[in-house]
Amino acid sequence: QVQLVESGGGLVQAGESLTLSCAASGDIFGHIVWGWYRQAPGKQRELVATLNSEHATTYTDSVKGRFTISRDSAKNTVYLQMNTLKPEDTAVYFCSARIFSSWSEWKDYWGQGTQVTVSS
């Protein structure tokens, strides 16, 4: 019953910036961990960043200092601000939400993905 829709992807040149949005709708209650993943051709899906209900964030080493995950609660929207983009950042980016009903039970939801292409 939860739907996530990403937007904001596109084609940019190396060194430029781009911000992705993830609009959430449905039954979003309780403890939630938001995440951004990406998958490049021929590679495994990679966790890029997370944000939890206490506003704590994590980032994979390759994007630390360049990417920022944030949330606008009023709009039920999660963002990924990407600065100083590199060709290695080229991938399909997915928004995710892990919604906990208890400490031992949760359910994951995924968006459809948005393409980010960074040219040299």
List keywords for this structure.
120 residues, mainly beta, seven-stranded mixed β-sheet, four-stranded antiparallel β-sheet, elongated
Describe this structure in words.
The chain is mainly β and 120 residues long. It contains no helices and 11 strands. Strands 2, 4, 5, 6, 9, 10 and 11 form a 7-stranded mixed beta sheet that branches. A 4-stranded antiparallel beta sheet has the order 1-3-8-7, with no helix packed on it. The model has no long low-confidence stretch (mean pLDDT 95).
Strand-helix topology:
Elements lengths: L2 E5 L2 E4 L4 E8 L5 E9 L6 E6 L5 E3 L7 E6 L4 E6 L8 E10 L5 E5 L3 E6 L1
Parallel strand pairs: 2-11
Antiparallel strand pairs: 1-3, 3-8, 4-5, 4-9, 5-6, 7-8, 9-10, 9-11
